[in-house]
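Quick one:
INPUT:
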């Protein structure tokens, strides 16, 4: 892949799929445990603050991904996705995606343009604004 095939952090929005980008890890928060009802297994996750020269975002690292990376590493994500967690934009690797350390240079990360600080409100498609004609209740 050429560098032009990668997205920039500033262009990320909720519910993106097939996200390919190269980011620098600014820091990795402390890990915490989570029990998955779906897989019935205990998982460990940690939030990594990552970015490039256009912006920054929180990326969730799972299980064995946590110990692989440290602050200052430049990583390549392939086939990742974005989601909302409590209204905050998150970058995720997912089951089909991959993340690995690469020998690339990213200068200063723009931490002022933190996309995860913006609160996104997920509007259900059945909201009252979507239905201009309301049914009257029969008496």
């Amino acid at each position: 892949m050429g560098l032009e095939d990668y997205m920039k952090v500033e262009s990320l929005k909720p519910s993106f799929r097939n996200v390919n980008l190269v980011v620098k890890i600014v820091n990795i928060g402390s890990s915490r445990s989570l029990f998955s009802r779906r897989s019935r297994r205990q998982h460990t996750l940690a939030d990594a603050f990552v970015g490039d020269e256009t912006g920054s975002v929180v990326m969730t690292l799972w299980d064995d991904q946590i110990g692989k990376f440290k602050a200052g590493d430049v990583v390549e994500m392939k086939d990742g996705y974005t989601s909302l967690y409590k209204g905050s934009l998150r970058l995720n690797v997912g089951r089909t995606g991959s993340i690995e350390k690469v020998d690339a240079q990213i200068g200063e990360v723009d931490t002022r343009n933190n996309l995860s600080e913006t609160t996104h409100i997920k509007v259900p498609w059945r909201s009252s604004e979507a239905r201009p004609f309301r049914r009257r209740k029969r008496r």
